[in-house]
Amino acid sequence: MRNKNLGYEIIRTAVAIGIALLISFVIIFAVSKQPGDAIVTFLTGPFKSMRHFGNVIEMMIPLVFTGLAVSVMFQANEFNLGSEGTFYIGAVAATFIAINVVLPAGLHPAVAILFGGIIGAIVGAIPAVLKTVFGATELVSSLMLNYICLFFGTYLINNFMRDTAAGSMVSHEFQSTAILGKFLPPTRLHFGLILAVIAIVGCYYFLYRSKLGYELRMTGQNPRFAKYSGINTVKVIILSQVIGGFIAGAGGATEMLGMYSRFAWQQLPGYGWDAIIVAALARNNPILVPISAFFLSFLRVGADMMARGTDVQAEVISIIQGIMILLIAAERFLAYWKQRQIYKDATKGEK
C-alpha cells in the first residue's frame, strides 16, 4: 500500500510540475520578444557546460540538508520552520572551529561539521521544549528563532571572529585544513556532496527501518493512536526537532566549509525557506529529497541564465514555485483519480 501511495504522490507531483511549467511558458510567450530562445535557454542552459551543471549540484547540496531536516520534522507533524536559523548558526559554529581550533586535514572539517550539527540540534530543540513544557506552537517559536539565530550569529562573528583588516564585515580566513576538498574542476563541487548522500541514506533508514523512525511517523499520522499504543509522543516531538536541527546545522557547516574561505553572510541565506518547497515536492520522503532539490536548483540556474541571456526576468521561477506549491498542497488535486484506483483495487477480487 505504501508503494501505491508513493506512486500516486510521484504522479501527482509530476502533474503539478508540468502544469506550473506550462503556465510559465505561456507567460514567457506573452511577455518576451524572443520566447523560443528564452525557453530553450531556461531548459537546456544548465547542461551546456560542466561549470553550469556544477552550479546546479553546488546549489543542490545545501537544499538536500535542509530538505531532509524539514522532512524529518514534518513526518512527525511538527511544523518547525527553524531550519533557516539552524543552518545559519551551524555555519557560525563551524566558522569558530575553522578559525580557532588546530587539527589535521580531514579531521578538522569533520569536527567543525559535527560541532555545527550539535549547535543546530540544541537550537532545534528549543521550539520542541517550548511546545512540550509551555504549550507554545512550534510554528511561531521556530519562525522567531530564525531571526534570533541571525542576530546572535552576526553578533558573534562581528565581535569575536571578525577580520578588522578586511574591508567588509567578514570573519578571519579559515585554516586551510578546515576547508572541504574540491573535485571535478572547473566546478566548485566539494566533498560535502558525499556527506549529503550519507545523510539521505541515514534519514531513510532511520525513518523506515528503525523503531524510533516508526514511532516518529506514527506520531505524525495519528498522535492519539500513537499515545494509546504506548509511544512516548513527548519524546518523539523533541527527538524529531533535535534530529532536524542537527541535519540543518551540519548542512550549514558543510556549505560554509565547502564553498567559502571565510564567513561573509550578513543575512539568512534562504536555504531553510527553500527546504519547505523541497520537502513538499518530495512528500517528506528522504529518497525523493535529492530529486526535488536537484529540480529546484536546476530551475534556479536555468532562470538565472535565461535572465542574463534573454529579455525574461528570473522572477518567472517564483511563478513556477508558487503554482507547484498550490497544487501539491491542495488535498483534492487528483484525489478523484486516487479514489478510482482504490475502488478498482477493492472490487478486483469480487469479479
TrEMBL record:
An example molecular function term from Gene Ontology annotations: transmembrane transporter activity
Keyword Transport: yes
Bilayer disposition of the protein: Multi-pass membrane protein
Predominant place of localization: membrane
Family annotation (CDD domains): TM_PBP1_transp_TpRbsC_like
Residue spans crossing the bilayer: 12-32, 52-74, 86-105, 111-130, 142-161, 189-208, 316-334
Pfam entry (one): BPD_transp_2
Protein name (record): Simple sugar transport system permease protein
Superkingdom, taxonomy of origin: Bacteria
Subcellular location: Cell membrane
GO cellular component assignments: plasma membrane
InterPro entries: ABC_transp_permease
Keyword field: Cell membrane, Membrane, Sugar transport, Transmembrane, Transmembrane helix, Transport
Coiled-coil intervals: none
